[in-house]
Amino acid sequence: MTGPPAVCPGPDSGPGHTARVRLPYDVMVEESSFVQVGRLRLGLHVLIVVLALIVLLRAVILSEPSAGWIGALTALFVVVHIVGAGSSPTPTTRFVWLGSLCALWVAMALLGADAGYVSFGLILLFIAEMSVGPAMAAVAAVTVVDVLIGARDGRWGGALVGSLLGAVVGVVAGLGFRVLFRETEKRQRLIEDLHRTRAELAETERSAGELAERERLAREIHDTVAQGLSSIQMLLHAAETEDLPPGAADKIVMARRIASAGLTDTRHLISALSPADLAGSSLVDALARVCDRATAGTCRIRFLVEGTPVSLPMPVESALVRLAQGAVSNVVRHADARHGVVTLTYGADTVHLDVVDDGRGFDVDLLDDPGAHSFGLDAMRTRVEELHGRWAVESEPGHTAMTVTFPLAHREDTR
Questions:
Q1: 106 CB contacts (<8 Å, ≥6 apart)?
Q2: Is residue 148 domain-resident?
Q3: Which entry of 15, 128, 143, 197 is 20 to 30 Å from 267 by CA?
């Protein structure tokens, strides 16, 4: 049976933070990629060791005069190969490692060992460990040495055919190993990219969820507790003007002061839950800071204001700041744009926010596709609809525009 998901807490783990969950399938796929690469390389190195041991076995069975020296060189060859294969060599140490193996192979061949088996293993190793050009040059050099050593008894034809055939088979097998290595490593990189993308998406969703919840709480407190305390304060203030007994009048004054203090604390709480850019500043100043921070590299973001600024409800101002932050971030990070313009327009009974850029654009039909990954844009649209606003996007190569409109029919009751 499949075990529970593996939960990997990040550095921000704790109350209010979401841990990154790795499903059993993801863990199995990642482990299988590492296992495949390890098995392929282990198989190649075991094959080379076996070929070297075959040379030693033939020398012992055929009772060659230099069997002792051949055995010593074979053992040294195996040790050097295992040490080099088990380390992570740099280009220099890899060259020294392969050169040492070639030197030992030449010494074995000069002693009379049937070193053609070892040369086949060296060809596999060259193809797997070196780039194509140097590997082919090394294969050609090994083949020439094989021919010269094999023709010592005068049989040039057999030595030539055997060496060439071994080289061709070795190159084909080595290229097969090379392709398998690269495909497996490519798959591993794709898996790592997938994990990284999923982690970024989870972080984006978590941050967006936190911001949405903070703003929802701010709206609820503003529309309920703050309005209630304000009404209580006004009623108590009106009651102070009535002809009341001295004891009752003092209690009403005290109640009004308590309600006033509670209203002040509530407004501080609402301010803390609102976007930081709005703290102690106007909407125009907050949007200007958003644009200034977003200007980076070759992309320049300008901010324009049209009409006479008026006081807006706190939820609308907060939404406009969040929408501008999300839209400008998309322009800088994804649009490949050189210029962007954010325009805040105050009308008679509406306020408009327009974000325009000259980037590469995108297919707006994706916004209506449930399978498309457009979390940021979907969050913007939801935010606008919650405040009974209108949201529109148009895009083509070289021009993308997002327009948001909020009604101001009750702006006299803003704060």
A1: 145
A2: yes
A3: 15
